[in-house]
Amino acid sequence: MPEPFAQETVFRRSSLKKSVASFLAEDYMQPLTLDQFKTQLAAMLRDIPYGTSADLTGYAIAFWDGSKVVYAFLAEDGRGHIDDEFELGDYEWNHWHDDFVSWIKEPVFSVRPELRKRIWTAPSDNGVR
Question: For the chain, what are the domain ranges?
Answer without folding.
Answer: 12-117
